[in-house]
Design a protein that fits this description.
Elements (H helix, E strand, L loop, with lengths): L2 H24 L6 H26 L6 H4 L2 H10 L2 H8 L5 H7 L9 H5 L7 H26 L11 H17 L11 H32 L1 H19 L4 H18 L4 H4 L5 H17 L9 H10 L1 E5 L4 E3 L7 E7 L2 E4 L5 E5 L4 E2 L1 H6 L6 E4 L3 E7 H10 L1 H16 L1
Helix pairs in contact: 1-2, 1-6, 1-8, 2-4, 2-5, 5-6, 8-9, 8-10, 9-10, 11-12, 14-15, 17-18
The chain binds adenosine-3',5'-cyclic-monophosphate.
Length: about 425
């Protein structure tokens, strides 16, 4: 971890500590001087770190006065001053305003998200939940302390400090996350105004939590959501164009198949944004099973297989669909990844039934003659297509593959 990120972590931790400590201090707990000095130094350290991070992140020149005229830097400079000590020593602890200024340093807890950016393996769920789960207790505590400072409303008769704090926490939590239950209410004007402000903040907090939770729930099954979205669009399209019932059924079953086998995503479109090298490694990883079963490619080098896999285009054929017809010109070679393909003669009788791992369409490519049979998908078929120009390139570069393939062609012709 870079030094700046370590500093950021320290600053966030310090800001949390101060956020829990300072409100308690403001509402009346007078600590011993060493503790006061410790927290004052901590606040100054947080401010110094954040001034450093500001110049580090923005790459501004600290020698220019202009660079210091930034609101965040000015606030940090204020917090850098030993304000708690002023309040404690000079004003004999009667300067709440001084102490309140130090609360400005607590805003640095907001850097959690920036810090979490360092962890590329972090799940989106953790990325979204961590800041909420960490800052909500702090906010509730700070609001509760403010409530105690204003007299705790209708629960002001309590004398036990723990009970006062717990009731304030309860009031704070219910007012921030809902509109409160009304069992603890404001009595004085400042309390009423404070309640209004907390409720106002609460609307934002509640909305933020709710929208994040809703987002998390929706994303928890993003693939299904994506699939449903596609289905909705397709249904609207079919209705609009009055597609016949039979065709509709086939389209639906295609989407169903895509959902079951590919979770609705087409490999290539999804990964288009990746750098080419990573893409080819990824395709190699996903598709190595397809080409490794092909007899004429036995012994092919890793580089060649990787090159071939980059060029393979996935295609799905629905049951009964003709992949090509007899006498068509040969434009490509086909590898069966999933499903079965029937090779049919001119009178539609079966010449062969090819399974997962087989290939077909090589004869027309080798002989430069039209297709000698028709290829029909038996059920849904996941097929990878290698176009002729690349096939020719491979055969030119590796004549022994050409030879092996010719043997296979002869065997097929003979059968
Ligand atoms: P092609 O002639 O290009 O198109 C039809 C394909 O069917 C052919 O290539 C072969 O790949 C395949 N084929 C033809 N006869 C057989 C067979 N007997 N066994 C397996 N596949 C065959």
């Amino acid at each position: 971890m870079a030094l700046s990120e370590l500093f950021r972590l320290l600053s966030i931790m310090g800001a949390f500590l101060v956020g829990f400590w300072l409100p308690v201090r403001i509402v009346g707990y007078v600590p011993a001087l060493p503790l006061e000095i410790f927290f004052d130094l901590l606040i100054s350290a947080i401010s110094a770190i954040n001034i450093y991070l500001y110049f580090h992140d923005t790459e501004k020149d600290f020698r220019e006065i202009k660079s210091w005229l930034h609101l965040g830097v000015i606030l940090d400079l204020i917090c850098f001053l030993p304000l708690s000590l002023f309040a404690f020593v000079i004003f004999n602890d009667n300067a709440t305003a001084f102490l309140m200024l130090n609360l400005l340093s607590v805003r640095h807890v907001g850097q959690i998200k920036k810090f979490l950016d360092n962890f590329d393996s972090l799940q989106p769920l953790a990325y979204r939940l961590t800041p909420i789960l960490m800052t909500l207790p702090l906010l509730v505590h700070m609001v509760a302390c403010g409530w105690i400072g204003l007299g705790s409303g209708s629960s002001s008769d309590d004398t036990d400090t723990t009970l006062i704090y717990v009731k304030a926490l309860y009031w704070s939590f219910t007012t921030l996350t809902t509109v409160g239950y009304g069992d603890i209410t404001a009595k004085t004007i400042p309390q009423m105004l404070y309640s209004c402000c907390v409720q106002f903040v609460g609307v934002g907090v509640f909305g933020y939590i709710l929208s994040n939770m809703a987002g998390l729930l929706a994303r928890s099954d993003a693939a299904r959501e994506h699939h449903m979205d596609n289905l909705d669009k397709v249904e609207t399209f079919m209705k609009l164009h009055r597609i016949p019932a039979d065709l509709r059924g086939r389209i639906r079953s295609y989407y169903h198949y895509m959902w079951l086998h590919k979770k609705g995503y087409h490999d290539h479109t999804l990964l288009e944004g990746l750098p080419t090298k990573i893409q080819s490694e990824l395709f190699f990883h996903i598709n190595q099973g397809i080409l490794s079963q092909v007899p004429f490619l036995k012994g092919a080098s890793h580089e060649l297989l990787e090159e071939l896999m980059n060029e393979l285009k996935p295609q799905v054929f629905v049951p009964g669909e003709k992949i090509f017809k007899i006498d068509d010109p040969g434009y490509a070679l086909y590898f069966i990844h999933e499903g079965q393909v029937e090779i049919q003669s001119r009178d539609h009788s079966r010449i062969a039934l090819l399974n997962k791992g087989s290939f077909f369409g090589e004869m027309a490519l080798i002989s430069e003659k039209p297709r000698m049979a028709t290829a029909v998908a038996v059920g849904f078929c996941d097929i990878y297509v290698l176009e002729k120009n690349l096939f020719d390139k491979v055969m030119q570069a590796h004549p022994h593959f050409h030879h092996q393939l010719q043997n296979i062609v002869q065997q097929r012709r003979a059968s």
